[in-house]
Amino acid sequence: MELTDAERLLRDTFRTYFTREIEPHVPAMESGAMLPYPLMRPMHEALGLDALLGRGAKPRGDGGRDDAGRAANTIRYARTTFTVEMARVSPSFALSYGASLSLFAGNVLGKGTPEQIERFARPVLHCEKIGCWALTEPGGGSDALGGMKTTARRDGDHFVLNGSKTFITNAPYADVFLILARVEGGDGAGSIQSFVVERGTPGLATGPAMKKMGMRGSPTGEIFLDDVRVPADHLLGGGVRERGHVKASLTSERIGLAVLSYGIMERCYEIARGYALRRRQFGRAIAEYQMIQSRLARMYVALSNCRRIVYADYLAGRPSRESVADVCAGKLYCAEMGTFVAFEAIHILAGNGYMEEYVVERLARDAKLLELGGGTTEMQILTIARELLRE
Ligand SMILES: Cc1cc2nc3c(=O)[nH]c(=O)nc-3n(C[C@H](O)[C@H](O)[C@H](O)COP(=O)(O)OP(=O)(O)OC[C@H]3O[C@@H](n4cnc5c(N)ncnc54)[C@H](O)[C@@H]3O)c2cc1C
To answer: Ligand 1: distance of its center to the CA of 255 in Å?
Structure first.
């Protein structure tokens, strides 16, 4: 992919920052000795992210060859590359950052009233507070909407929330929670709505960080809601919304998760290639053996296809992916290929690949989450088929 000088400069700036400022903290974050959050505000300041990724930098136009088109495309490139570079170093840091900035603040920005944006989204966008987005429940994962048990009952100028959530990124430490709940009685009965709840609200409790296979630097946990009273102006958007707004959140989450997978596979491929060129067995570099070349070539096929998927909007100069089916197809393919490439890298490094020191085992454990979160592979397939067969 041909980069302009400006794009190369951006990528190198991100890469240098993550390598110098985030990577040294990865072992402490993985062990739980350090949380990812204190690193986020300094990162925003150092990289000028408030301006680069903020609302004011919304890409306008459809790309094109004029100055405005090029500027819009550079912003699209910057957003994707920022996430890729973060995932190369620490997918779990990227997951926590994305849950706070995209899933919490992005939803409030997209659907909130001006007052909600100012009060709840702004501090999270500036990494002064941490947010989370709570859809999944113990009884409702893939069928999160149909199986939702958490309720919101109108009581005068308040809503009263009851229920529980699980597997929620950032929940153990979040300052603000976007809770999805089914409205009981009155306007919009039965519909699923989003409510902003602040930590410290009576009746809201969170569990400790859960022990996980991967993404260990990203705290995941439960939320318990026991007669939690929130003012009616904490209902996102200020009024009951149509069905479908949750699905729009899932679409943007899936684009982000595909990009994380790509970052993982790019790093794993590079580590495996470098190792194959250096490691000698039977008097030769293992890269000289065709069976190793075959593995590297297949890893590259996946990498090359996924690169085109995650940079598709940038390359086409358009603001967002063309259809829900395309987004699900991209998420499914990148997530599966992320796991494939990471495990191939372990195989090429063999004993060393199995050791923490060589990074690929951590990236492989992290990669698996991306086949599950934001809807499992099966959910992507069901959604693709539904979209394709729609008359
Ligand atoms: C580290 C981590 C972070 C997460 N962060 C968040 C978060 O921030 N916010 C949030 O709301 N959620 C979050 N989740 C939850 C995640 O989105 C769910 O785990 C995921 O949607 C799957 O739900 P489930 O685990 O309940 O699996 P289940 O729905 O129980 O699925 C079990 C298996 O059955 C399959 N299956 C289910 N239904 C069908 C069907 N109709 N046809 C074929 N196969 C089917 C699934 O594909 C899967 O293989 C997180 C999860 C993890 C592990």
So the answer is: 17
